[in-house]
Amino acid sequence: MQTPVTPLLWLSAGLLGGQAAAAAAGGPAWRWMALGVAAVLLVCRHRWRWDLRCCAAAAVIAGAAGHWQVDRVVRPVFASDHVQRWVAQRAVVRGRIADRPARRAASMRLMIDVVAVRCGTDWQPASGRVLVTLRDVSQPWHVGDQLEALLGLRRPHNFGNPGEFDYEAYLARRSVYVTAFAASDRGWTRTAAAADAVERWRTATVHMIERTVAWPAAAIVGALLVGDAIPLPDAVRDRYARAGVSHVLSISGLHIALVASGAFAALRWLFGRSERVLLGSNVPKLAMTGSIAPVALYAAIAGDNVATLRAELMGVLIVAAVLLDRPRDWLASLAAAAAAISVAWPGALFEISFQLSFAAVLAIILGMRRITPWWDRWEEAHLVRLRGRHWRWLRWLVLTEAVTVCAMLGTAPLTAWHFNQVSLIALVANPIIVPLLGGACVGAGLVATAAVALAPRIAAALFALVGAVTGLADLLVQICAAIPGASVRVVTPSAIELALAYAILATLVLTNGAHRRIVLALCAVALAGDTAYWLARRTAHGALEVTFVSVGQGDCAVVEFPTGEVMVVDGGGLGGSFDVGRQVVAPLLWRRKIRHIDVLALTHADYDHFGGLPFLVDAFAPGAFWWNGHAGTGPRFAELQRALGSEGVPVTVAARGMHRAIGAVDVAVLHPGPELSGGDNDTSLTVQLRYGSIALLLPGDLEAEGERALVAATGPAVRSIVLKVPHHGSRTSSSATLLDAVAPRIAIISAGADNRFGFPHPAVLEAYRRRGIALYRTDRDGAVTVSINADGAVAVTTNGGVRAFQP
Asked: Taking residues 69-75, what's their average pLDDT?
């Protein structure tokens, strides 16, 4: 089936392609190359028609413009008074809240437009934005409030792990280049701003939801109607993702369509009461035009997320087409919305919500263009429409399920890419949950939202009804999510695999006959080759690879043995609600195509070592758990113990003398001894990996006393070419006794950027420098991977490149 290609598709594809190239290539060279290609297309003789050449040239120019836009955002030229001048200092910041405060379960985020900064006694004019994470909130913060606050300013950092979420670019797209953390807003000076009518309406709606709807249904109703004004617990998000219905929790096309259709119906009825209006105008067109205002008002209340903007823009374009008596081209409207958002918000292509929203709608448009005519032919052949009204439900059910299937298939590769999870129960859950939450709850909830300012009692009664229906829907979601196999965790597809997946989907909906068979066969061959490559890479690469993962102020090492087994030593832990295991370590493992951990080891029970382990136990089903037997405290350690028990993981208290042979690598426990004595750090489980003639030592957080005990008990056996620096480079570790006995050539420090402990200590850095040891740091180098070959050759890979060390 041929799909007409409009100039809007060329422009949108060029703009998005240019933005993608900005992320992949960087620098201005690509832009000049693109402009050169555009000139060649326009000037040179070509077999294409002139209009096609113009479209192609315009697409290339748009791509260059998109590249320039993103490059300007990621690498800006700061004004001389930009607040980044005061990074790494504590300063009093004066400014105003520029955006709605983002509430989280245990914190709040405030976006501050800075007007002045004081370091010392004098105020200095300043510009720019600061994103403040506030843990203890004691004051009611709103858009426009002015404030003065003492903040420790810092530059945002990515962790530096390969393929990670680009947090720096994410903030840059919001004009944020400086961040701060504050334990409390007590002592801050606040001058309240007069809220506008929309903000007062939204605030009143939130308060009424919280008063009339029980928890956690209140958070779900808030997500359905007013965005993220009420924090949504992670457990709720997880079960909706498992059930494949998490899309209903974001305000998108469904909500906009309900508002538009409700306003259209009401206005059409109202205008139909007037004979003058009926005779003097086109009532449907007039009602459709009038429905734009309620949609814009609702979008202002709900917030400016990508899915809402996309739906609003498409709605306006479709209305314009109707008013101008033009055919409704959904594909052109989608392309125009994508181009408009990309121009207004450079880099929007890299937002997960943008990708999922546009992929879902594109899949529905293209898929239904093929499915609807097929179903019409089937109905005609079986005379379905002559069999009675009740057969209409069959059409509704089939086409509704087809929309769900199209959206699922269109977003499944991206869901695997970003979230490593694909829901299998979604085909069952969506026809049940979407009518309840997306129809009944949103429909009644929107009426209740409109009634908040006019009839509070009616609004309260409606919200109570919405809460009851939401509770029922949430119960059904829990049942669906709890079914074994409801969703599957998948490894992260590579860029090639992602492209092949979408090539297959595009082939199925856009081609026929021989062309389809040829393309599908080529894709199948490419996928087979890709699978063979990764199988060989995972199970027969022949090297011992140890990746010291950048987890902030903490420790985590991923060991990949020559024959494919995997060992993870420690799991990091930053405190608060940020789960390092879920958001840092697990994504790295999935990108390496790792689905199972053979051995999970904990050196000692400090939070910065075990905080990320509960999720790793749940997601990777370890074959064994090693630790020193010294239990930790707090709810997170209890969660780790529960996870080990529920997964049935064998637990071993490892002590000196324990050996395991894994894939031609000797794994030896050198410390502690059978008697558990000394401080928490000094009893750290110390593991040595020996592959051929090369040894690598992982000593946890040993301090001077533990180091002396280790050296005394092991003697020459402790000698290792590669050393993980003990205790993050603390001054109380890396004693001369240890360094002389180990005699490393390569050392790796795991520490967080700008950490409050001052690790690594300058004296420790000097000790390694004096001995000529090659030193790497996760706070500066990102993830550090040490590869050891059977012949003794060692290579160290960081973000800065690869360095080889000969035996």
From this structure: 79
